[in-house]
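User: Could you check the structure of this?
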Amino acid sequence: MKKSILILFGVLFVLSCVETKKEEKEVNEVSKKPNIVVIYLDDLGYGDLSAYGATEISTPNIDALASGGLKFTNGYASSATCTPSRYALLTGMYPWKNKSAKILPGTAPLIISTEQQTLPKMLKKEGYDTAIIGKWHLGLGTGFVNWNERVSPGPNEVGFDESYILAATQDRVPTVYIKDGYVVNLDPNDPIEINYETNFEGQPTGKDNPELLTMKWHHGHNSSIVNGIPRIGYMKGGDAAKWSDIDMADHFLEKTKTYIKSHKDKPFFLYYAMQQPHVPRTPHPRFVGKSGMGPRGDVILEADWCIGEFIKTLEVEGVLDNTLIIFSSDNGPVLNDGYFDDSDTKIGKHTPAGVLRGGKYSLFEAGIRMPFITYWKGQIQPGVSDALVCQMDLLASIAKLVGVEENSTDSKELLEAFLGKSDEGREDLIIEATSRTALRSGDWLYIPSYKGPEVNTQVNIELGNSDVPLLYNLKQDLSQTTNLYESNPEKAKEMHAKFIKLRGEDYNVTQKLELK
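Assistant: Sure, the predicted structure tokens are below.
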């Protein structure tokens, strides 16, 4: 009997040791997984960084990522406007497949289904802590939001353990921070009310009360006034919760630093969605006048400094060597995008689009071809890649990195390209701008004919609309100076057929021009 008991205890001991070793192995496997950080700027152009050829502005901290990592020359957002690009980044889906993926008001419902696959949701299942800090602009709630209670669904319901966000954009109401669904510092005795159609009685506006403004509006931004800045949409109440515009960059930076310090012992995914250089451009006084190009240049310098401080924190906390950093922007540049802020009058010799044509809202290259950098100290060898990659491809590629196969989205698995181990990227990519689509295939870009203005006169940017289709060989004509549609009919026919196959026959629908 005693012998049987001893044998039983022996078996149980061995099993417990096996289980313990299994658990230790699982913990070690998780701990070896790299941290993943996406640094996402807002309206930053291909030519806005000295790493990408800018000569009138210096961005040393972003340049350090480029020189120490892989700088892509053919890196794309999915769209030439913000919400669609952010949707594609997080879901791995083409934004034109979701009719709600367009520039959203601050009251829009969440456009990502809570059942949908997302980058944070995938990483969360693989043992990652996940967080977003910064701009959201993908909708909140179900369309009937009570800002004085928990706002749901939102980032926390689509894969983020923690969220500290601004709901839409800095120029839209509500002008408050939201932490895990709750408005920060909200006084229940001063409830928030939001309306995008009708003003609240007695509330001043940029249109009717110019004497209260510290920043003059140019177009579209003439509703409620917060901190002397007229916004899009009407807001009443919530005074204690309203953010300080000039402190926003510092505020988000501190949140990211705190997050790193408190999550450094476990793999984390951090989506650091910066607000610069989107309007209203409100640099901290430390940066005012530093660029000589007005507030837009100043906030680019501010963003670069923030990124430098962020990288220092990763290094000090001992996690930089095991962190994959992806840097990019949601869409191309724009100067005057709603306010008189000297962005166009003080631009000087600086060219935000670099050698590219167009800008934000445009199907031309400057709207969608982005600064795009991957950095992983000791893992990615410094260099330049011409591989055609898209932000949408991060989901499938990062899934491969952490040992998951992801085939449910439009995302292409290009991990070897992102790590600099292969020059092969995509062959084809459908690009989008304000619901219009075009095809990038190999070295070629094909834009079908679209009715509408050729130039957005409010922001002075060519849109890519034309009575005839546009065809460019980007390898030979990066600035898109010569339309080859008529001189190369065979290639035009081939590109159109491929575009229809990938996009569908319903591509050319009547669209209204969406403006920020």
